[in-house]
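Dear colleague,

Thank you for sharing your sequence with our group. We've completed the structure prediction you requested, and as agreed, I am returning the results in plain text so they can be pasted directly into your records. Please verify that the sequence below matches your submission; if there's any discrepancy, let me know and we will rerun it promptly.
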Amino acid sequence: MKKQRRIAGFKKILTILLCAALVFGLAGCGGKKKAGGTTKTPTYQAEFDPYYLHPGLAEGSDWTTADVWYPVDSPDSLPMYLTYGYDKGYDDCQFVITWIDAEGYDYADCLTVVENMDLVSMNGEELDVDFIFPDPLTAYDKESKTLYSRANYLPYDQLVAAFSGKTFANGRGNASFTFHDDRSAVQTYGGQTYEGTWEITADTVLSFFDRNDASYDNHLQILHDREGVYLYADSDYYYPQETAEPENSTGAGDTGTDDAGEAGSEEAGDGGEEAAA
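Please find the predicted structure tokens below.
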């Protein structure tokens, strides 16, 4: 009888231990799953003011085309166009967003720029978006958590490097643009000089902003070929110029010194002979 009680007691203890092990095991698995499933949402900052955003230009365009913004790692999101409102017949909005579905264009809504450099839906529109721009080729919608890119040719940093510190001139030599590293710029045309700033404002547009008169602003089309990049504006092509090598000032100085020394010696000699006479 005692032996049966002992066996029953051992069975109870063993059952309790097994249950405890099972509970702790499940808790451990759940903890690992939770830890492994936690992902950080990337953060993006508004670095570029969409007020200066350019829709983009296709080669040989009539200035009413636009770049396609593609969603990055978001297969359920549609590509889109961002175009000027007045290009689409809207007088009361700065930009129009047009989604591109499988059949072509889907629908359009008006967007406006607000003070904190966000591009948001206007009041009364059905669409609810809030775009910020880490750079002119990248947009992030804070509402849908979707990142968009229109860098079809070169990333933003590489486009900046392609123009920074370089001069582009037309074939006739009467017009040029010089783009400095600090984003200042100089435009020369017909003997006149205009100072301003420059920025990559689209995948295919470099903009020159005049410091004194906005009517002299110029949006140059960026073209690409096997040789590199060049610019197009006002029916003229602008090509990168080779940097001129500085003259050897040391050699010129030595020559000048020798000539001056010889001339001085001759004059001194003539003077001495006249004095002796």
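Summary note from our side: Residues 2-37 form the longest helix (36 residues).

Kind regards,
the structure core
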